[in-house]
């Protein structure tokens, strides 16, 4: 294990949260690397120091009652009845957006009902609208594929 790779596991080693193989690999690295060994020792000392000085605080038993008494209930009653006329439009916009999304999904799924499609293949839309719909999905698919390939290459390089 090299120092740049062991750096990610210092805290896990101190907290005993590494797997047995990783723990053995880290122990053998620490035996040969005085720099990492000193850093792990500092982390362990800090953890022990914090554990010794830990103070458990208990809130007063009547804290909930005191907080509830301190709340000005009249202030919140006034704000419950909104005088903002745009508040109603916000809810309407959500409804319209949901209906539009449903119609779009329904229209996209109609292509599977086309009797010309064979073996469950979707028909291609050669219209301008069809091209505008597929371009963003193709780009998202390409970006997702590139990201997965990078993750896989990183996983294999470890």
Give a written overview of the molecule.
GO terms for molecular function: zinc ion binding. Residues 18-37 form the Putative zinc-finger domain. By secondary structure, this protein is mostly helical. The protein folds into 3 domains: 3-52, no CATH class; 82-123, no CATH class; 124-158. Helix content is 70%, strand content 0%. The chain contains 8 helices and no strands. Helix 3 crosses helix 4. The mean pLDDT is 77.
Task: Give a quick rundown of the structure.
This protein has 158 residues and is mainly α.
Secondary-structure map:
Blueprint: H1 3-6, H2 10-14, H3 20-32, H4 34-52, H5 63-70, H6 73-80, H7 86-109, H8 128-157
Helix pairs in contact: 3-4
| Mean pLDDT across every amino acid position | 77
What is the total tally of β strands? Answer: 0
Distance between the termini: 11 Å
Helical percentage: over 70%
The residue ranges in which pLDDT falls below 50 over 5 or more consecutive positions are none
User: How many structural domains are formed by the residues?
Assistant: 3
Percent of residues in beta strands: under 5%
Organism: Desulfosporosinus lacus DSM 15449
GO molecular function, one term: zinc ion binding
Pfam families: zf-HC2
Protein name: Anti-sigma-W factor RsiW
């Amino acid at each position: 294990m090299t120092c740049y790779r062991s750096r990610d596991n210092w805290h896990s080693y101190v907290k005993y949260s590494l797997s047995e193989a990783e723990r053995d690999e880290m122990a053998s690295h620490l035996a040969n690397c005085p720099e990492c060994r000193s850093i792990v020792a500092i982390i362990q000392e800090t953890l022990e120091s914090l554990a010794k000085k830990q103070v458990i605080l208990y809130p007063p038993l009547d804290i909930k009652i005191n907080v509830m008494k301190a709340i000005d209930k009249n202030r919140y009653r006034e704000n419950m009845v909104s005088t903002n006329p745009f508040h109603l439009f916000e809810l309407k916009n959500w409804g319209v957006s949901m209906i539009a999304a449903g119609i779009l999904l329904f229209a996209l799924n109609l292509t599977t009902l086309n009797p010309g499609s064979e073996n469950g293949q979707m028909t291609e839309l050669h219209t301008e609208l069809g091209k505008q719909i597929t371009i963003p999905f193709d780009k998202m698919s390409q970006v997702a594929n590139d990201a997965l390939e990078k993750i896989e290459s990183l996983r294999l390089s470890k």
